[in-house]
Design a protein that fits this description.
This protein is of the alpha/beta class. The chain is 30% helix and 24% strand. It has a seven-stranded mixed β-sheet, sandwiched between helices. Residues 1-6 have low confidence and may be disordered. The structure holds zinc ion (ZN).
Length: 290
């Protein structure tokens, strides 16, 4: 696992059952137990998720310590994500001259700091006070809320672009999260969401005796077809899946895996129809238009 993350044995409390975020079914098949929680697949659409799951309040307690105050952690995080941040910044910058941008799970602010403060009004939402304090002192032009996205006071229809990297896999109710993203975007606005899809790697993880989803950290494991279906049902006009740039993990197994599978995925993407993305990419970037 990644040394940047704070991971300890979990004592489940206040567990809540949720229906499938993709199809609404409440019927599931058991897949595995992890950290005293159950990983299940939807009996109707095969989407994989942790059910029941910790309540919003229990997750808030858990994530308050997600970025421990530790020397050099902000720089190491920025370095790990820099290729992804540069890639998506380039994509947005090629399509917009200026506007209002919101990053959900903005961490230390590295992604938003790339945008020209003369042209962009940048807002970050991040529950970790350690991360938002760093952002406020290093990037004072970014408006930062120390809050859960669900609780942040943001105006409907006010953003040209909403981004979120490696957040949706962690949230209590991913369908509600994406509905809120849709609600906050202007008409024609763009959401860029990057999330892992780990189920194809479950056999490897079992072989290497590694956690499958690091529950309760990862609660939602969308395959591209699942995320696309949910996005369209919420009301996005178009949902496009890309393999995108790999994360430069500080863990060697993850780093090597991401580099190899990400590379194959990008080559595959050039030749394969977009309706069948490479299943072993490890993570995908979704481009959703309102
Ligand atoms: Zn389902």
């Amino acid at each position: 696992m990644n040394k940047n993350y704070f991971y300890k044995p979990y004592e489940p409390k206040e567990l809540t059952l949720l229906p499938c975020a993709v199809c609404g079914s409440r019927s599931t098949h058991p897949l595995a137990d992890e950290n005293n929680l159950h990983i299940v697949s939807c009996a109707s659409c095969d989407y994989v998720y942790v059910n029941p799951r910790p309540s919003v309040a229990a997750l808030e307690d858990f994530y308050r310590e997600y970025y421990p105050p530790q020397e050099g952690l902000a720089d190491s995080w920025g370095g790990e994500m820099s290729a992804i941040f540069a890639n998506i910044f380039g994509y947005i910058n090629a399509r917009y001259d200026s506007g209002q941008i919101l990053d959900i799970g903005s961490a230390y602010g590295h992604f938003l700091s790339q945008f020209d403060a003369q042209k962009w009004f940048a807002t970050g939402v991040e529950p970790s006070p350690t991360a938002t304090e760093y952002c406020r002192s290093n990037f004072p032009r970014i408006t930062t809320f120390t809050s859960n996205f669900e609780d942040a006071d943001l105006a409907a229809g006010s953003f040209d672009v909403v981004t979120s990297f490696y957040v949706v896999e962690h949230v209590f109710d991913p369908r509600d999260f994406m509905q809120r993203v849709h609600h906050l975007l202007k008409d024609g606005g763009l959401a860029v969401i990057r999330i892992p899809y780990t189920r194809p790697f479950f056999p490897f993880a079992r072989l290497l005796r590694r956690p499958l989803m690091y529950a309760p950290m990862h609660l939602n494991d969308f395959a591209p077809a699942h995320f696309e279906r949910m996005g369209r049902e919420i009301g996005f006009r178009s949902v496009e899946t890309t393999v995108g740039t790999s994360r430069n993990s500080s863990n060697m197994v993850e780093k090597l895996g991401a580099a190899i599978f990400g590379f194959i995925g990008r080559v595959y993407e050039v030749f394969a129809p977009s309706s069948h993305p490479f299943p072993y990419a490890g993570a995908y970037t979704y481009l959703l238009r309102k």
